């Protein structure tokens, strides 16, 4: 089992940086290691130098990513959370909360009232994390994920403003 890194002062040093040609490889490695779904090359291309995407790189290794995008969804434009994750070794030290601040800031700067995401129905830890930060489950999308078990997703929403 991988050991969790000592990270008492990690929060003080957190800094998001853009995805660049230089860090793209480590970002891809991070994403492949934390999500059960694979992201397309188009996703990574869209991430490059995009101010709606941030990564935390520590000692040359990407350890966290947040990617958001305004999207039209049912009742109107929302801030959709496309990717949100922290490397297992760095969890439970406040990095996820730091990424959530980024989401809220982007919502405000884009004048969007709601943030929204899909989460696998079995992902209890992430669901609890989001609920503790004001997100609520509004619906279930059966068979949302391909090649994942379970394939179903919850849609979670938060009103930011
Ligand atoms: C969900 C996820 C992003 C949370 O990231 P994280 O860095 O662990 O988040 P935080 O450290 O801010 O918070 C996690 C918990 O640790 C606690 N915590 C934070 N700092 C802590 C510390 N110094 N000591 C002990 N606990 C701490 C928080 O209170 C929080 O508990 P809560 O969820 O009950 O409120 C992470 O588990 C993850 O990457 N999961 C896999 C990817 C994923 O599922 N993403 C979502 C897809 S939709």
TrEMBL record:
Class in the EC hierarchy, top level: transferase
UniProt-listed SUPFAM superfamilies: Acyl-CoA N-acyltransferases (Nat)
Domain N-acetyltransferase per the UniProt entry, residue ranges: 14-161
Superkingdom: Eukaryota
Single annotated GO MF: protein N-terminal-methionine acetyltransferase activity
InterPro entries in the record: Acyl_CoA_acyltransferase (IPR016181), GNAT_dom (IPR000182), N-term/lysine_N-AcTrnsfr (IPR051556)
Catalyzed reactions per annotation: N-terminal L-methionyl-L-lysyl-[protein] + acetyl-CoA = N-terminal N(alpha)-acetyl-L-methionyl-L-lysyl-[protein] + CoA + H(+); N-terminal L-methionyl-L-seryl-[protein] + acetyl-CoA = N-terminal N(alpha)-acetyl-L-methionyl-L-seryl-[protein] + CoA + H(+); N-terminal L-methionyl-L-phenylalanyl-[protein] + acetyl-CoA = N-terminal N(alpha)-acetyl-L-methionyl-L-phenylalanyl-[protein] + CoA + H(+); N-terminal L-methionyl-L-alanyl-[protein] + acetyl-CoA = N-terminal N(alpha)-acetyl-L-methionyl-L-alanyl-[protein] + CoA + H(+)
GO terms under biological process: mitotic sister chromatid cohesion
UniProt GO cellular component terms: NatA complex
UniProt EC number: 2.3.1.258
Protein name: N-terminal methionine N(alpha)-acetyltransferase NatE
Organism of provenance: Caenorhabditis nigoni
Lineage: Eukaryota, Metazoa, Ecdysozoa, Nematoda, Chromadorea
């Amino acid at each position: 089992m991988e050991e969790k890194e000592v990270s008492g002062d990690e929060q003080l040093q957190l800094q998001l940086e853009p995805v660049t040609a230089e860090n793209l490889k480590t970002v891809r490695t991070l994403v492949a290691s934390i999500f059960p779904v694979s992201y397309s090359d188009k996703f990574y291309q869209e991430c490059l130098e995009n101010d709606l995407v941030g990564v935390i790189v520590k000692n040359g290794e990407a350890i966290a990513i947040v990617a958001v995008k305004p999207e039209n969804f049912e009742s109107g434009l929302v801030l959709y959370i496309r990717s949100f994750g922290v490397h297992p070794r760095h969890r439970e030290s406040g990095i996820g909360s730091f990424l959530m601040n980024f989401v809220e800031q982007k919502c405000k700067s884009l004048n969007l009232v709601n943030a929204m995401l899909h989460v696998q129905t079995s992902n209890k830890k992430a669901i609890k994390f989001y609920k503790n930060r004001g997100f609520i489950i509004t619906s279930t999308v059966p068979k949302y994920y391909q090649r994942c078990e379970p394939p179903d997703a919850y849609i979670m929403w938060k009103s930011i403003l």
